[in-house]
TrEMBL record:
Gene3D superfamilies: P-loop containing nucleotide triphosphate hydrolases (3.40.50.300). The keyword Chloroplast does not apply. This is AAA family ATPase. Residues 429-456, 567-594 form a coiled coil. One of its GO terms (molecular function) is ATP hydrolysis activity. The lineage of its organism: Bacteria, Pseudomonadati, Pseudomonadota, Alphaproteobacteria, Sphingomonadales.
Length: 804
């Protein structure tokens, strides 16, 4: 599975991802960017869940994490991951309030490799050193598993486990019980062995009879054979009818040919001869062209026909090049235009939904204010203004109450103030009505626009396919443009070659030069090894003489083939007898060996026990030597190289230490070595800064990935640049570029800083034709679904400096 690559990921309502997100992953490097909380970690965790059926970092934090994976606003969620290459499959899991339901996932071994060697979640980065530092000494601890996988100790461990019962003699005696039955078993075996020896003698006699028949057949055929029943293959090969069958076939063909010659004798008698016109030589130029370009043209044509399945392309190479280039350009432009329009519609849809939220909020505010104003305020103000003409003094003309009792000023002034307030409320009500109409019109327009955009926007898979189709069309068009002139030259050379061949064929068809009938029959007589035709001999008599000779040869060959078949049948019989003899010999040998084992069981048991104990001691010594040598040198050397590459100015280098004592219980220590040498320092947590401690954990993870065989060619890193300065980041980018371009690792890295995202996009951009880069940008607005916009970068050759 070393060429297995991630292709695409579909996530629906998983953790912080709301709605459905489609993320293409079929590139050598995939950069994921998004603000904090946009869903980067959720996207990478979805990959782990689809492949392994769980999320290891969340399991460490909360054993009951499965019930929290689904988005809070959803009733059901899912993750689906597709891979390409050897062992390609579609992995996935569905989420519900009850937990995780896995569809297809890795087996336990691959799942463990992915979680420990391929995926570094953000939460694990700061805990990685502590996990290995606090690892127990048991066989199931993370460090013990890693040491066994790194040093390939499984066979030594299996030998040691298998030989463990030899330490106690009582365990050995359990396999040799039944001493009281040994004598009866020996008597039975002696009688059986005697009968089997008698049967073997009879089989030997039967084989001798068959060998006599083979000898007679060989003498008749004139074959000198070494008649040994152990060399039946050589005898059968010598008796093979291949030569006689070929000669018989040749005689049959000669007889048929002679019949044709005898029929042609009358038809061609007396015919003259004429010279064949010289054939024009074939075009060497076309052959040289075909050796250089034909295979490349065929592969490119198949690729273009796959890109343009509905387009009928001409068969001629010259016209094919122009037509295919035109269609590829149109296909790429259409795909790019559709993708650009779809992305613009996605952005406009998000903006329209935001505007809709604002407009609806404004409608609610206007409605609340209108509900607080009476609709009859204008009429009441008109009535009160007429009532003021009837006010005389401080007595109300409506209720006859003395307003002076309230000590609130004159009654007339109070009524005038009331009329002014009611008039202002009526005017405000009119303004709110006009504003409400405008806001409702805006909401209606936005609803129509959102519905139109929702219907027009393709799904994310279709959008990714459009980007992929445009990239493939542009790549094929560039390659076609590079050989367009060569295709035109090849078409011209091919036409010349066809014309030359046609001229030669026509010249040959016009040739009427035939050999004279006498010469033809004479040549045939020489071909069949009989007396040639002499001058003056009648052609009919000569033909009859040749016919008699061929008939005699045919009868002789048929008799020889009959003898060969009988001899080969005897060989088959001998083999059957030998098979019976071999079976009896095997059984006889087994019975004799069993009898010997019964007699020597006690001695063998003790001898095996002593040898097994010595082997177990040797295995333990070898295992201890391998662990101390490889673990102290191999892993530490790789870890040191990676750490120094990212932190060239740090004087303390992290490393593992294995005790010099026996290694039955692995108890490593994490220490730091100084560049200048000397005794080992304290743990990395005590000696390194926060940034370099983060670098030590990251390089340890990369060392664990690179120190074992390439089982899964993936490196998935979730925001690994925590506490790193610009120098560390630059060295990390160079290291990731080396792993991607030279070591062919598929890298998926998520970052939240925009400037870092743009820097990594430039540093990890495609550097050769088959290289690729994908960027995924996650965004999510309030009360909106998560959006994932992808952009694909392919290799483009720099041509701006060619003119210089």
């Amino acid at each position: 599975m070393t060429d297995l690559l991630l292709k695409e990921l579909d996530v629906t309502d998983f953790r912080s991802i709301r709605g459905r997100v489609h993320a293409p992953l079929d590139a050598q490097v995939v950069l994921v960017h998004g603000e904090n909380g946009a869903g980067k970690t959720s996207l990478l965790s979805a990959i782990e869940l689809a492949l392994t059926g769980g999320v290891q970092s969340l399991r460490r934090a909360d054993p009951d994490y499965a019930s929290q994976l689904m988005h809070r606003s959803a009733a059901q969620g899912s993750v689906w991951l597709t891979t390409v290459g050897t062992g390609a499959a579609r992995y996935g899991a569905t989420l519900s309030p009850d937990g995780i339901a896995t569809s297809i996932s890795f087996d336990a071994k691959l799942a463990s490799f992915f979680s420990e060697r391929s995926y570094l979640p953000q939460a694990l980065l700061g805990q990685l050193l502590q996990i290995y530092q606090d690892s127990g000494s048991g066989a199931d601890s993370p460090l013990a598993k890693f040491v066994g996988e790194l040093l390939r100790l499984d066979r030594l461990d299996a030998i040691e486990s298998g030989l463990k019962p030899l330490g106690d003699v009582r365990n050995v005696r359990k396999v040799v019980d039944g001493w009281s039955e040994n004598e009866l078993e020996k008597t039975r075996l002696d009688a059986l062995i005697k009968d089997q020896k008698t049967s073997l003698l009879q089989i030997i006699e039967d084989i001798g009879v068959q060998m006599s028949g083979i000898k007679k057949a060989a003498d008749t055929l004139g074959l000198v054979l070494e008649l040994d029943d152990r060399k039946l293959d050589a005898i059968e090969q010598a008796l093979s009818p291949t030569d006689d069958e070929q000669r018989l076939g040749t005689i049959t063909d000669r007889r048929r040919e002679l019949g044709s010659i005898r029929r042609d004798l009358v038809r061609v008698a007396g015919a003259g001869t004429s010279a064949f016109p010289a054939a024009e030589p074939s075009s060497d130029a076309y052959e040289r062209w075909a050796a250089t370009y034909l295979e490349r043209y065929s592969a490119l044509r198949s690729r273009i026909e796959a890109i343009l399945p509905a387009t009928s392309l001409p068969g001629d190479m010259a016209t094919f090049g122009d037509a295919a280039l035109r269609h590829l350009t149109l296909h790429a432009d259409q795909a790019t235009s559709r993708a650009s329009k779809a992305k613009a519609d996605v952005e406009r849809l998000a903006a329209a939904r935001s505007e809709m939220e604002v407009a609806r909020s404004r409608l609610r505010t206007i409605s609340g204010e209108m509900d607080g104003i009476s609709t009859s305020a204008g009429g009441l103000a008109s009535i009160l203004s007429e009532v003021t003409a009837f006010i005389d003094g401080e007595t109300c003309p409506v209720c006859d109450r003395d307003y002076a009792e309230l000590n609130a000023g004159p009654l007339v002034e109070h009524v005038h103030n009331k009329v002014r307030r009611l008039s202002a409320s009526a005017q405000r009500l009119l303004e709110l009505g006009r504003t409400n109409t405008q806001a409702q019109a805006l909401v209606d327009r936005l609803e129509r626009e959102i519905a139109t955009l929702t219907d027009a926007i393709p799904d994310e898979r279709t959008l990714a396919d459009l980007d992929r189709a445009a990239a493939e069309a542009n790549s094929a068009g560039a390659e076609l443009a590079g050989i367009l002139d060569a295709l035109k030259e090849g078409s011209r050379l091919r036409a010349g070659q066809v014309a030359a061949q046609r001229a030669v064929t026509e010249a040959q068809s016009r040739s009427v030069a035939l050999t004279a009938a006498r010469q033809t029959l004479s040549d045939f007589a020489l071909a069949v090894a009989t007396t040639p035709i002499v001058d003056g001999e009648d052609l009919g008599v000569a033909a009859e003489r040749i016919q008699s000779f061929l008939d005699a040869e045919n009868r002789q060959l048929e008799d020889r083939l009959t003898l060969r078949r009988e001899a080969r049948s005897a060989i088959a019989t001998i083999r059957s007898l030998q098979s019976r003899a071999d079976r009896l010999s095997d059984e006889l040998g087994q019975h004799e060996a069993t009898a010997k084992i019964v007699a020597e069981a006690q001695q063998r048991a003790q001898k095996v026990r002593v040898q097994g104990t010595k082997i177990r001691d040797a295995v333990d010594a070898i295992r201890s030597s391998i662990i101390r040598r490889e673990f102290n040198e191999r892993l530490n050397r790789l870890w040191r190289d990676l750490f120094v590459r990212l932190a060239p100015g740090e004087p303390f280098i992290p490393a593992f230490r294995i005790p010099e004592a026996e290694t039955q219980r692995i108890q490593p220590r994490l220490v730091t070595d100084h560049r200048a040498g000397g005794a080992a320092g304290g743990t990395p947590g005590a000696m390194l800064s926060a940034g370099n401690l983060n670098t030590a954990a990251l390089t340890l993870f990369l060392s664990l990935h690179l120190s074992v065989p390439k089982t899964l060619p993936w490196l998935i890193l979730d925001d690994p640049v925590q506490s790193m300065d610009d120098v560390h980041i630059a060295h990390l980018a160079a290291l990731l570029r080396t792993l991607s371009k030279e070591h062919r690792r598929q890298i998926v890295i998520a970052v939240h800083d925009r400037q870092l995202f743009e820097y990594l996009r430039l540093e990890l951009s495609p550097a050769f034709p088959n290289d690729s880069l994908l960027t995924l940008e996650l965004a999510r607005g309030p009360h909106q679904d998560t959006r994932c916009l992808s952009r694909r970068f392919s290799f483009k050759e720099e041509t701006s400096l060619l003119a210089a």
